[in-house]
Amino acid sequence: MKTSSHVSIRLAILSIVALCSCSTDVGRQSAENLAARGTWSTLAPMPIEIGEVTVAPNGGKIYVIGGSTGDVVDQKFNQEYDIATNRWRNRAPLPRGMTHAAATALNGKIYVVGAFTAGGHGNAVNWVYEYDPVADSWRERAPLKSPRGSVGVTVLNGKIHAIGGRGVDKITVTTHEVYDPASNRWSELAPLPKARDHLAVVAGNGRIHVIGGRLDPSPPQNLDQHDIYNPATNSWQAGPPLPTARSGIAGALYQGKIFVAGGECRDKRTYPEMEGFDLKTGRWASYTPMIKGRHGFGGVVVGPNLYYAGGATECGGGARTNELLVFNLS
Fold first, then answer.
1. Which SS3 state, helix, strand or coil, does residue 32 take?
2. Percentage, residues of the chain above pLDDT 90
């Protein structure tokens, strides 16, 4: 015959077993939820701390180009990161120093478009350079029709689109130009519905998405605007707004989503937000924020990961970083 004490002990044991099982399930679910929202890690840092860079991929390598350091506003910096070896090396420098340039990869080459050459977003230029990673050499290509820095670029249907930015008078613009590398010519297309610079420009599913950025009254006004360009009709339509209005951001297409990372500035602090727009569902979602907020950096996708290099962790040009961050969605 079982005594009441035996029953109590047995019930207590069963409760502990159930609790342990439940805790294990919760822990597993938490880990799965964390992985679904993405994880961050760091790799070998760049040799110098630098912000307002532009970043482009080629093969299994990442190139960080131009930018500003504490002593030089317009660097000729060109660093190559090898993912396989986790190492950096110097490559042929830019023909001319620049900051706030834009870059993209096409047909094994890297194109650097527009820039500033003075502090305070001064002296916008219309320069366009093509870099050959195999030959480690640069050549000048046809210039933009309109000089501007903080422009956004992306590739769609074999051509390079340069959108928005800030011109020689430091005023944000709606300009939209497209470059054909076969003819080495730029032509004008339908302008942005709203002028802005320091924006994200990303191509996906046959459209171009222009997200965030800012106008430049005093103080600058961050925007949540999301415009979608249709090349078939040469027209724009409004998309779901960026959940967190910001500028100085890095945008990239990764696993069917357009991710927008970082930015400046809120309450005198940079943004750590990581938000993704799902091209299939047409909805935004929040993901694991950056280890530390930053702006003036670049993001590219290589293989299963998103890589972010350089930038500044404080507003303006303060606290430039040499970090290389990796974001992964399992």
1. helix
2. 83
